Amino acid sequence: MNRLMDPINEARGRAGFPEVRGRRLRRTEPMRTMVRETILRPADLVYPLFITEGDNVRREVSSMPGVAQLSIDRLIEEVGTIAELGIPAILLFGIPDEKDAVGTGAYAPDGIVQRATRELKARYSDLLVITDVCLCEYTNHGHCGLLHGTDVDNDASLDLQAQTAISHVEAGADIVAPSNMMDGTVGVIRRALDNNGYETTPIMAYSAKYASGFYGPFRDAAASAPSFGDRRSYQMDPANGREALREVALDVAEGADIVMVKPALAYLDVIARVRASVDLPVAAYNVSGEYAMVKAAAANGWLDERRIVTEILTGIKRAGADIILTYHAKDLARWLREG
Ligand code: PBG
Fold this sequence. Notes:
Blueprint: H1 7-12, H2 29-34, E1 45-52, E2 58-60, E3 68-71, H3 72-84, E4 89-95, H4 104-107, H5 112-123, E5 128-133, E6 146-148, E7 151-153, H6 154-170, E8 175-178, H7 185-195, E9 204-209, H8 216-221, H9 242-253, E10 258-262, H10 268-277, E11 282-286, H11 288-299, H12 305-319, E12 323-326, H13 329-338
Parallel strand pairs: 1-3, 1-4, 1-12, 4-5, 5-8, 9-10, 10-11, 11-12
Antiparallel strand pairs: 2-3, 6-7
Helix pairs in contact: 3-5, 6-7, 9-10
The chain binds ligand PBG.
Ligand PBG binds near residues 215 and 287.
């Protein structure tokens, strides 16, 4: 209630300063801790990983310091560290050796993500393996669906997205995350999972995914830049907020279990509006370009990395995200442990 309108406080004459002093609760660390509204936990985090063919490969991504493409054996090692830090979930992206027009590697039973998932689940049964469901890393044109001329053909792409999701779940994926932004993709995947006996597997939908310049470093990491054109005919216009609510409502109606906003930092208002519009868990993807900016500034000594990362991720959670997908996950989990 507005203090000025509050009859009890009116009667006490406590309309504002000097009786009211915000600084009383900021005086000491125990006081600040007691009234802190937003607290980050390792359990909030998902760590994205890039898997590549070969043995003993660790190829650093130059635009994402600390992030590397890993072969499956090195991935297994890395996931040991991640699990040990209390991070409950990873998100897998595959980089196949071969690409073709129809993205065969995306839904191949022995594709890179499928093999990595099997190996991981055999060793870390409690780890949540989330898989990105999209064709762009597997098509030679780099678009997220099938081409018809130079158009991405929505309906013709849906069955392949569903096949991709099924092949991931058959390999042991705990959650599938369609990021392709085809209309109807969540519903088609939900039905396919249900018809194949996977009715208990959740879908984390990239519901409000914007056509963003902040994906630049990711496209180096995953070798998935479109060979012509851009993704604006399927990803959202950064200018639109209401449209995000419409996309979210459609994904919820189609059976999404978790809805995502991506990127995060330039879209905190969208996270807050989505949080207010649904009662499902909301995820936010703190994407590659957001990570790269912080890393570059920190490397130059322009910003204090620990402080900035904590502030950014706290802001994303405060805006309404329950789950944060971030390349800073390992660092944050370590800092939280240090206290
Ligand atoms: C596409 C996909 C992208 C990201 C996740 N899934 C890139 C794109 O749409 O071009 C970006 C993630 C990031 O930038 O960290 N399947």
